[in-house]
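Sample 1 of the test manifest.
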Amino acid sequence: GQQLNQSPQSMFIQEGEDVSMNCTSSSIFNTWLWYKQDPGEGPVLLIALYKAGELTSNGRLTAQFGITRKDSFLNISASIPSDVGIYFCAGQLDSGGSNYKLTFGKGTLLTVNP
Amino acid sequence: ETGVTQSPTHLIKTRGQQVTLRCSSQSGHNTVSWYQQALGQGPQFIFQYYREEENGRGNFPPRFSGLQFPNYSSELNVNALELDDSALYLCASSLAWGYEQFFGPGTRLTVL
């Protein structure tokens, strides 16, 4: 099945550093979402973006909806050990009756060294 | 407010068997979606149910089927299990189709 291109695949950083990850698609999406998944758990919604160019923050997390509607970025500032996990981007289309499903990236594995 | 719950947590089956996984949606949500997540991959959409009707389906064979009940809980049934069906099966509920989806903890299925 289709998956979005998410990079980097993994990151190993020191506590306190900032993190950036991004997601690109060959298709346009009308909604971009970012999830975090801990081992053995389901994905937890972090941020949802609904408009091209939109910049949204949730605490230390900031995400942007690309103006082409084909990409999105997630930044984490001042990382802490509990930020460890896998971060997934997901796109949702809102036309042609296909706005029921999410298309996911392969994930970015984040490791934070205390 | 109770979140999305799934049962069982883990399941081991043998090839050719059938399995039923269950999901209870978050309070107030009438839409349930099912995803398959293979190891090291992002979740892949299987299908969605909205008010007891299938609202969309991904690229999965007919041996993957589902149901949604009047209380909006849902089942995923997989017949004739294959080794490649081993995965984490995730259920997500939303206020209605097109709205943000909230995931349960998943059911880990192992097919031997």
